[in-house]
Structure formats: structure tokens, C-alpha cells
Amino acid sequence: MQFYTRLGDDGTTDLLGARVAKDDPRIDALGSLDEATSAIGLARSMAADGRVREDLVAVQRDLYRIMAELAFTPELRPAAYSFAQDRVDWLEAETDAMAASVDLPREFILPGESTPGAALDVARTVTRRGERQVVALVHTGYEVNPTIIGYLNRLSSLLFIAARVEDRAAGGQPQRAKVR
């Protein structure tokens, strides 16, 4: 079985319903979300906290659903590929539950108190880039389910809190970014 098709040798790739240039803004957004799920997977492989690991698996699956919805052209997208608000609600509940378990300073903090926490902070920044690229799609006229944008916005909060949970599990305390 071959793992390549040679179809992209001309600088194009498939979206579900259209062939587009590899530098199409939708491909950029999908690439950043793909990178985010890989960064989340790396963090998950190091995570000590069971709830964090379970939540990260659920988030990775959600990101695949989001990428599938974004990959379809609007006219070909099946109704089943519409990302639902209940996933945003779940993300908010999980973030709140995790946040209740850690004490955070009111100031900006430095990433890097633990390896899994740092990996989650990298995943958070990649997720933020993906969010910006999805928002840019809206501004350039692409049809994007607003629930996706809400989910990506909340996801960075979950990843931030999960990083602090992992820092705590490793015995680390948040260090303030600004020295007083």
C-alpha cells in the first residue's frame, strides 16, 4: 500500500468538495489545528493526572470533528458534521472543575514548572494560533460554525488550567512573569 498519491505535487490538496492550493487559508487553519492535536497528544503522553489525560483524549477527538467540519465546502457538508454547543458546555464544566483544584496568582506566570505543564502551554499557544486562523477565515468570507470559534477560545483556558494541574502534580509552583 502506498502512502502517497503524487496529487499534491502541483501544490494543491483536497478539501472535502474542492481541490485547493496548499497555501489556502483553510489549509493553514486545518494545519494549525492538526498541529494542536499533535501537541496535545505529546502533553497527554506525559500527563500524570488521570482527569487531564481523559480530557485531552476528548479534546483531541473534538478537534478532529472540528477539522472535518472545516474541511467540507459548505454546500457538501452533511448536517451530521455540525459541531455542537454541548461540547463547548462540556469544556467549560471541565475547565471550571480543574480550576477549582489549583491556586493561581493574579499575575502572568512563566511556563515551564514541569515537562507536561510546559507541553500543555505549547499546545495552548498552537491552539490560539489555530483559533486566530479560523477567525481569519470568517473575516475573509468563509462560512464557519460560530460554535467552533467558541470551543477553540475555551480550549486554551482548559489547556492553561491543565498545565497548572500538571505543574502541581510535579511539585512545581507558578512563577510570576514579573519580578516585584
Overall description:
The chain has 180 residues and is mainly α. It has one domain: Hypothetical Protein Ta1238, Chain: A (Up-down Bundle), CATH 1.20.1200. Helix content is 60%, strand content 7%. It contains five helices and four strands. It has helices spanning 25-46, 50-71, 85-99, 115-139, 146-169; strands spanning 12-15, 18-21, 109-110, 175-176. The strands form two sheets. Strands 1-2 form a two-stranded antiparallel sheet. Strands 3-4 form a two-stranded antiparallel sheet. Strand 1 and strand 2 form a beta hairpin. It is elongated and about 50 Å long. The model has no long low-confidence stretch (mean pLDDT 92).
| SSE string | EEHHHEHHE
Strand content: 5-15%
Which superfamily, in CATH terms, is the homologous superfamily? Cobalamin adenosyltransferase-like
So how many helices?
A: 5
> Per CATH, which architecture?
Up-down Bundle
Sheet with most strands: 2 strands, antiparallel
- The global form is elongated
Mean pLDDT: 92
Short descriptors:
mainly alpha, Hypothetical Protein Ta1238, Chain: A, two-stranded antiparallel sheet, 5 helices, 60% helix, 7% strand
Helices and strands, with pairings:
Layout: E1 12-15, E2 18-21, H1 25-46, H2 50-71, H3 85-99, E3 109-110, H4 115-139, H5 146-169, E4 175-176
Antiparallel strand pairs: 1-2, 3-4
In short:
The chain is mostly helical.
